[in-house]
Amino acid sequence: MRFSRMITAVDAHAEGEPGRVITGGVGPIPGDTVFAQMQFLAEQQDEIRRLMLREPRGYPGLCCNLLVPPTDPMADMGFIIMEQMEYPAMSGSNTICVATVLLETGILPMTEPVTELTLESPAGLVKVRADCADGKVTRVTFENVPAFALHLNVPVEVPNLGTIKVDIAWGGMMYVLFEGWQVGLNLTPDEGADCVKYGEMVKAATREQYPSVHPEHPDLTGPTIAMITGNPVSTHAHGRNTVVISTGAFDWEKPSTWTGALDRSACGTGTSARMAVLNAKGKLGLNRDYIHESILGTTFVGRLVRKTKVGPYNAVVPTISGQAWITGIAQYVLDPTDPFPEGYRVADIWGGITD
After folding, report:
1. Cα–Cα distances in angstroms (integers) from residue 211 to residues 45, 82, 203, 208, in the given order
2. Cβ proximity of 253 and 269 under 8 Å
3. Active site residues
4. What is the spatial distance between Cα 64 and Cα 82, in angstroms, rounded to a whole number?
5. Phi-psi sector, 153: left (phi>0), alpha (psi -120 to 50), beta
6. H helices within 159-243, ranges in order?
7. Which class for 327: exposed (0-12), middle (13-18), buried (19 or more C-beta within 10 A)?
8. Is the pTM of this model over 0.85?
9. CA gap 110, 132 in Å, rounded
10. Ranges assigned E (strand) in the chain
């Protein structure tokens, strides 16, 4: 057999959201920090992301993570997050998948009943507590980067929808959040296509009317992702949401390009952003569990543990808790004669995008 590339990966999902973890087959990435390494991949070696996330090895809803040696001596492992349209600085579901894969495959030692470790994400150090029993990670709790609201209850004019009231917040990614009732959504699985369409429309309009920049990292702009919020279905949850992850470029003139995939989990950075908004509105205090429900009915448990500042913004430090399950271990290869060395996208499931 002749292969120009062989990548080993472990597939997992965190409360429904798939997060592939690359454990081998990618050489050293230049950069003094994991953030710098992420930038190098985006600018110089993006073919790895495309190879792993596009067909025939990937699919629209898939996320991927590359394990890298930590650059900070305080960290046990570094990881770079890859999604269909961007390299997020932080991701909750991917953090949970990475921690689970590291411990259950033995890359890092597991200690029962609790293993504590520190991961280095592009956004910074992430402290992780993993509850473990019989060789299984039964729960992952991590302290996220500080979250904060940039705009509250601002009106956005959305073509064909009218005026939508939104919040804009950072939770590890830059979010626009809006209540689903404004566009007639109850956040049920059968509404998935409408959730994607309206989420993409509101996000695109918000980017035009309220372009937002992280005060300490000017390269982190947005909003790049939309969260639609609603009331919970289960009696034990406090809120329900679905997050729209873009899978193609948005063009107002071409409705077929309004494409994305819903986060199947309750979304860790999105939960952090929503809790920051609720705190800023006086609706959620410190040290209270906030059970956030996904469109599948799975949950993450969030908690605001302390206050801080990020630039001029009042911020809160959240923790997120959830569970992941390994679904497969594979070696993904590239034949040098393969006509699609970076994968492909076809408009049947990728909207108007073909390449």
Report:
1. 28, 23, 10, 6
2. no
3. 91
4. 5
5. left
6. 192-209
7. exposed
8. yes
9. 8
10. 5-14, 17-24, 63-68, 77-82, 114-121, 124-133, 136-143, 147-158, 162-170, 174-179, 212-213, 221-222, 225-230, 239-246, 260-262, 290-293, 299-310, 313-322, 324-334
Topology adopted by domain 5-143+325-350: Diaminopimelate Epimerase; Chain A, domain 1 (3.10.310)
User: Where do the domains of the chain lie?
Assistant: 5-143+325-350, 147-321
Supply 119's token pair: 């991961």
Q: In this predicted model, what pLDDT tens digit does every residue of 26-79 receive, in sequence order?
A: 999 999 999 999 999 999 999 999 999 999 999 998 999 999 999 999 999 999
Instruction: Tell me which CATH homologous superfamily contains domain 147-321.
Output: Diaminopimelate Epimerase; Chain A, domain 1 (3.10.310.10)
Cα angle value 173/255/198 (rounded, 5°)? 45
Query: What is the DSSP secondary structure assignment for residue 145, as one 8-state letter?
Result: P
User: Do the domains at 5-143+325-350 and 147-321 have one common CATH topology?
Assistant: yes
Beta-strand relationship, 124-133 and 290-293: unpaired
- 259 confidence band (pLDDT: 50, 70, 90): confident
